[in-house]
Amino acid sequence: YNPDATQDDGSCETCSDGIMNGDETDVDCGGSNCGPCNDGCPSNLVTTLTLRTDNYGGETRWRLKKGGRTIAGGRHYANNTVYTIDFNLPPGDDYKFIIKDSYGDGICCAYGDGYYSLDNGNTNIVTGGDFGNREVTNFCIGEVSGRMANEGEPVIVDTSAEELPTAETSFNDAAFELFPNPATDRINLDLSTLRAVRSARVVTVTGQHLKQIAPADLDRPIDISDLPKGMYLMVVETEKGILNKKFVKE
Q1: Are strands 230-238 and 222-223 parallel, antiparallel or unpaired?
Q2: How far apart are CA 31 and CA 230, in angstroms?
Q3: Tell me: the pLDDT tens digits for 184-212?
Q4: Concatenated DSSP letters for 29-47?
């Protein structure tokens, strides 16, 4: 390296100049001096969703899935409003972001200037708005500079207790969804596939009743901040029977 050089001849490897030089295997990564490349997967600790609704924000809903399981989602938005949601996503190659418009005309152009953008650090994963009924994007998250994106406090799960009595067993465990799971302060229920929901409650895995959820609140985020860390069951009663799903409070 010549410190008096005034022009880069390709041998100067800075790892931050936006140029694939020296023995870098990609732009500013790989080779003998720069950090490893992430095979096309963005690797910032935080992934951010920016959403601007159109004139009919109530028609917009989205979900974030990992391995087929919903880990986050949103709906019931105000009109012409910008929302910013951050996710701390563990490394993986099977994330799926789904955004829907119930009327089928997207969130851009026809009835307002809505848009959405999913970004990992300075890397844009997807931007859109003119998508009709729905748009689906698959993406991955790589390792983060020697540490993993999901580092933090360990999740404590109580698996020593017995399951609910047979009277509380599900007739169809896939009939409703709850997210995020694990959850910290709030959890959401998606009961759109069920009819005549009578009640919902949070119980321990031994059947101890902890929290009753009023029918009017089933469509809103449920506060679980007062629950200790551990595993619980969301029990939903319908005219056909009782459903339950496990979730973890962390």
Answers
A1: unpaired
A2: 45
A3: 999 999 887 777 788 888 988 767 888 99
A4: BSTTTSPPP-TT----S-E
CA-nearest of 201, 218, 167, 180 to 87 is 180
Strands 92-101 and 115-120: unpaired
In this structure, are residues 210 and 216 in contact, taking their beta carbons and an 8 Å threshold? no
**CA–CA gap between residue 105 and residue 37 (Å, rounded):** 39
- In this prediction the pTM is 0.49
Residues composing the chain: 250
Half-sphere exposure at residue 64, Cβ-oriented, CA atoms within 13 angstroms: 19
Query: What strands lie across the sheet with 222-223, from one edge to the other?
Result: 177-179, 186-190, 222-223
Q: Which residue has the tokens 């069920």?
A: 194
- Give the span between the Cα atoms of 11 and 34, in whole angstroms: 13
**Residue 187, strand partner residues:** 222
Distance between CA atoms of residues 126 and 138, nearest Å: 9
Q: Average pLDDT for residues 124-149, to the nearest whole number?
A: 77
